[in-house]
Write a structure and sequence with these properties.
The complex is a heterodimer of chains A (719) and B (54). Helix content of chain A is 61%, strand content 3%. Chain A is mainly α and 719 residues long. Chain B starts with a helix and ends with a helix. Classes of the chains: A mainly alpha (719), B mainly alpha (54).
Chain lengths: 719, 54
């Protein structure tokens, strides 16, 4: 760094780290998109599971979501934050070494996820599937990122923190809180753990995390990027800076309360469902404030929309943000949720946001940044425009096909005829009906990927023709020592220069809703009727439950019957709060590609389950479920059961000391008994050692463990 | 349709509390930023920060 006798200094920004994150973004975009495409094809054409356990849908789907959120979007966020923060703060990052540790640490975490998820090492908590050693690594790398970011803020030369930086601060502190709280788990082995939360607690904490991972990993950082890059691309200041203040505080405060809208009609207490629903509706105000602020930034520059592909991507991204944030609160209203929840409508909603908002905003940022960072022109504007249109058609096709599929399926599930019977009693009818739409989805995803590949080609050629880079010194001045007028110290204006105060207020805004919603559920026993007599899982059932988790069954099957007449007719009595009170992690699920399993126990003979797992189409024609032949080849890990029982006992599951000491022996004994029953029904001889046996034991236990206290029915139609 | 939507807001105290919190926070921030004299000019300058930093 050179200093000058005048009032400026010459510095060089660390753009190398930005380039590294950009390249990682492009690489992992490919991984996330192709994994998503394969998963989409698997749902339309089940043989695409290829009978490979590590490629089966239940394991591929978590890989896709983690790659999309943490690898693609994560690296994009970091690229944008490192680039924009240095310029907004007029200083190089606090530490180049911390920047590199952050980069390589994050890529190693992604690599660990890419290895462990297909191998079935999963906690089964959506978007938090990674096992405990990786959770710790995430915490460490995130703290390194935070130290580097706040260190940069501390040595800044611009007193005022621009609005983009507020969103970055909110992202950093809130993601840390969400991740740490949701990841408190007790290890059983190096790659297996059980969460400290159980049942309803686990459900609420998980969806507080899951919903706010969307809020604070896929929304607030991208809003920060929007507030920085959209004005730059349009060469105009943001429409209303004051509106951005309202946008920020209202969004940060309100978003955190909305998690329970993922649990409407479940056994979550009504008060929590009501809060989740109301605060979700309130989100309309700040979200649309932000969208309007983004779009109106282009006032006077709308002509750029015709000629500049970067602006096209920005406008479409902000519009998709508006659409997704309109639809989200709508889906949170109980009557709409009764129709849409567990269906593909939710998948369409999520992808409208992920592909349209996060994807397009990232593409806009990449098209803006790559030519500037590499000191050249974009290779082809025409290709970028082609990318926009083909990608846009892809997102629209994806979204519309899934909304139509979801509403179709929801209506079919809820349909009751004049005699009070289900119109579509066979679940498979509702699956077969939407398979053509699954093909439309896969085709549309293919279009989106075609656009991405076009961008990849375009940017690679842009980079290849870039001149050899020289160091680029920039002159910056500091206003940190200038005295502020009394006016500039008043109200929010004063706060905008005070990093610690601003950060503390952000944390308080986030913690308010979190504590009010989560704290009461820590006292789970208050909600469980005294007369409930729940038996915890036997050792063999627990072994089966862990196989159920490993195979990602929760991805397609819920275990939560809502108190709706059609659900009770189809599945049985509504789920109660007591039934999952020992479930670590809870298995309520969020999607029904297949039917609910909460009361599947004893509905079919043992042999039916064996045949179903070996070839689902043998017992359910037209089923799209993958086959699981490896369950008859892989041997059950009986030895770990003693340790698992011990951990669960320490967490409060009422196992006796004797049960813990004999867990493995008891499981073998039960397995022999079940294997003999299977053999008597016609199964191959001596399956005692194989994983199919504990899985059948677990499935047969579902809904059989407690004395039922049936809650009253509710109807989405009000009758 | 409005009645259909509203029929699920049965927990009146919780609904009222949530609305009060919303009005307090949203209205508070609104007043904090828009009712301060002289803030318009200040924020017009700050809005230009991304355009002048390089």
């Amino acid at each position: 760094m050179k200093s000058n006798s005048l009032s400026y200094v010459e510095i060089e920004y660390d753009d190398q780290i930005v380039k590294m994150f950009i390249i990682a973004t492009m690489v992992f975009a490919g991984v996330a998109f192709f994994a998503g495409l394969l998963a989409a094809v698997q749902l339309a054409y089940w043989p695409a599971n290829m009978n490979l356990e590590w490629l089966s849908f239940g394991r591929l789907r978590p890989l896709h979501t983690n790659a999309a959120i943490f690898a693609f979007a994560g690296n994009a966020i970091f690229a944008g934050i490192y680039h924009s923060s240095q310029r907004l703060l007029k200083t190089r990052m606090f530490s180049d070494r911390l920047s590199r540790i952050h980069f390589w640490g994050w890529q190693l975490i992604i690599l660990a996820a890419a290895i462990t998820l297909p191998l079935g090492y999963s906690q089964s908590k959506e978007y938090a599937e990674l096992e405990w050693p990786i959770d710790i690594a995430i915490t460490v790398v995130w703290v390194i990122f935070a130290v580097n970011f706040f260190g940069t803020l501390a040595r800044r030369r611009e007193r005022h923190m621009y609005v983009a930086l507020w969103f970055y601060i909110a992202t950093i502190v809130t993601v840390a809180i969400l991740h740490v709280v949701n990841s408190i788990e007790i290890p059983v082995s190096w790659l297996k753990s059980y969460p400290v939360y159980a049942g309803i607690q686990d459900a609420l904490v998980q969806w507080w995390y899951g919903h706010n991972a969307v809020a604070f990993f896929l929304t607030t950082p991208f809003l920060g990027l929007m507030y920085y890059y959209l004005p730059k691309a349009a060469n105009r200041p943001v429409y209303s800076y004051r509106l951005s203040i309202i946008h920020f505080w209202a969004l940060v405060f309100i978003y955190i309360w909305a998690g329970p809208h993922h649990l409407l009609y479940t056994s979550l207490p009504d008060w929590a469902q009501t809060l989740g629903m109301i605060f979700s509706i309130m989100l309309w105000a700040p979200s649309w404030g932000g969208m309007i602020n983004g779009l109106l930034t282009l006032r006077g520059s709308w002509h750029l929309l015709r000629t500049d592909p970067v602006i096209k991507f920005f406008v479409a991204a902000v519009t998709f943000y508006g659409m997704a944030t309109f639809e989200g609160p709508l889906l949170s209203i109980k009557s709409v949720s009764a129709l849409g929840h567990y269906t593909d409508w939710i998948i369409g909603h999520v992808h409208g946001g992920a592909l349209g908002w996060n994807g397009f905003l990232t593409f806009a940022m990449l098209y803006y940044l790559v030519p500037r960072l590499w000191g050249t022109e974009l290779h082809s504007k025409k290709l970028a425009t082609f990318h926009f249109w083909v990608g846009f058609l892809g997102v629209l096709g994806y979204y519309l096909s899934m909304v139509v599929a979801g509403i179709t399926q929801g209506l079919m599930w809820l349909a009751i005829d004049g005699q009070g019977r289900l119109v579509y009693p066979d679940f498979i009818e509702t699956v077969v009906r939407i398979i053509p739409l699954y093909w439309v989805r896969a085709f549309s995803g293919g279009l989106f990927i075609l656009g991405f590949l076009t961008m990849l080609y375009n940017l690679i050629l842009t980079i290849r023709r870039a001149p050899k880079q020289q160091s680029r010194l920039v002159k910056v001045t500091s206003n940190m020592d200038t005295l502020l007028s009394s006016e500039e110290q008043k109200g929010h204006r004063g706060l905008e220069g005070l990093v610690p105060t601003f950060t503390v207020l952000t944390v308080l805004a986030v913690l308010a809703g979190s504590i009010i919603e989560i704290y009461p559920t820590l006292f789970l026993n208050n909600y469980v009727p005294k007369s409930s007599q729940l038996q915890p899982h036997t050792a063999l059932e627990l072994a089966g439950r862990d196989i159920y988790i490993r195979e990602g069954c929760y991805v397609c099957h819920s275990q939560q019957i809502r108190p709706l007449p059609a659900e009770v007719l189809r599945y049985g009595a509504p789920s109660t709060i007591a039934e999952s009170m020992y479930d670590r992690p809870f298995q309520w699920g969020s999607k029904r590609t297949g039917p609910d399993l909460a009361r599947i126990g004893k509905k079919y003979p043992d042999l039916w389950h064996l045949r179903h797992m070996l070839d689902p189409r043998e017992v359910t024609p037209n089923s799209i479920m993958p086959a699981y032949p490896w369950l008859l080849r892989k041997k059950t890990d009986f030895l770990s059961l003693r340790k698992k029982f011990s951990v669960l006992q320490n967490l409060g599951v009422p196992y006796s000391t004797e049960e813990v000491a004999n867990a493995d022996l008891q499981a073998v004994k039960d397995a022999k008994h079940l294997a003999k029953q299977l053999m008597d029904q016609g199964a191959p001889a001596d399956l005692t050692e194989y994983e199919i046996v504990p899985l059948i034991a677990y499935l047969q236990s579902l809904g059989q463990k407690s004395k039922l206290e049936i809650p009253p029915l509710e109807s989405p139609k009000g009758d | 349709m409005l009645a259909q939507g509203l029929k699920f807001f049965t927990d009146i105290p919780m609904t009222s509390l949530a609305l009060l919190i919303f009005i307090f926070v949203f209205g508070g921030v609104l007043a904090w930023t828009f009712l301060r004299a002289g803030s318009r000019k200040f924020y017009e300058q700050m809005a230009n920060l991304p355009l002048i930093e390089e």
